[in-house]
Amino acid sequence: MNWWRLWVGIQMGRAARALEFFALGIMRPADLIELNRRYFMRRTRTSTSTHVGNFDLGEEEATIVNRFSPRPGSALILGCGCGREAIALAKRGWQVVGIENVPTLIAAAKTNAAQSGVHIEWHCHDITQGIPTDRSFDLISLLGQVYSYIPSRRKRVRLLKACREHLRPEGCCLLNASPIGPLSQKERWAQPWRVAFAWLVVGNRECQLGDRWELGTPFFHKFESLEELAQEAAEANLGLDSESEGIRMAILTALTPSSR
């Protein structure tokens, strides 16, 4: 074994991870949104996007929908992808609106809905720029870790405020976040340097501890605790319902309008 090759390879890997870490100090939130959009466009081109008959809610999703929204009503699916959740709810009698900012995914969703025999209203739109409808909804879905893909606390809270405005009085908003857990001491040590670098290059001054990106993967924000998520919800006048923690997918949470 050539130990020097191994050592050089390890050092190069460390350097690559460091560059990826500090890249988040350069790319602003709008850049990260475009980064994710391009990632999912590439993923759509290289995978089969239409699987008629496979559109259904997962076990945990069905359980939480039945618990908080047992009767069909109006549903808004944010980051609807190729239409799995939207089609599943439409088949259950819901009136559904789906929003997605990746054109190829919207095209696939329309095809899938037509072949599944359901009518759904589709919009190709960046949800961080608002919700392009005046309607109100009984259920708003941010499942599929859509919420974690949104860069910056400011943009996430602004989206939750838009959700709050479009919720009916007894409605609820469902979301799941990236795996929740403690962050490493190395990340904590490096974060101030990343923020300083962002200010130096007039880059992403909103980068947060927990922001993650690796080459070939989408950007996402890792929440360190449910409390962090609850604080963002509270800013939008939404409350984190602790009952949802009993679901096997513990990160699946429900947001309901806070009492004033």
Task: Describe the structure in your own words.
The chain starts with a helix and ends with a strand. The chain has a single domain (17-257), classed as Rossmann fold, CATH 3.40.50.150. Helix content is 42%, strand content 17%. It is of the alpha/beta class and 260 residues long. The protein has a seven-stranded mixed beta sheet, sandwiched between helices. Strand 1 (74-78), helix 4 (84-91) and strand 2 (95-100) form a beta-alpha-beta unit.
What is the CATH architecture descriptor? 3-Layer(aba) Sandwich
Number of helices: 8
Structural class designation: alpha/beta
CATH topology: Rossmann fold
SSE run: HHHEHEHEEHEHEEHEE
Write out the CATH superfamily name: Vaccinia Virus protein VP39
Annotation, overall tally of beta strands: 9
Q: Biggest sheet: strands side by side, in what order?
A: 3-2-1-4-5-9-8
Largest beta sheet, briefly?
A: 7 strands, mixed
Percent range for β-strand residues = 15-25%
Residues in helix, %: 40-55%
**First-to-last CA distance:** 68 Å
Poorly predicted runs are: 48-52, 245-253
Overall geometry comes to: globular
Q: Tell me the Rg in angstroms.
A: 20 Å
Q: For the record, what CATH class applies?
A: Alpha Beta
Mean pLDDT: 85
| Total domains | 1
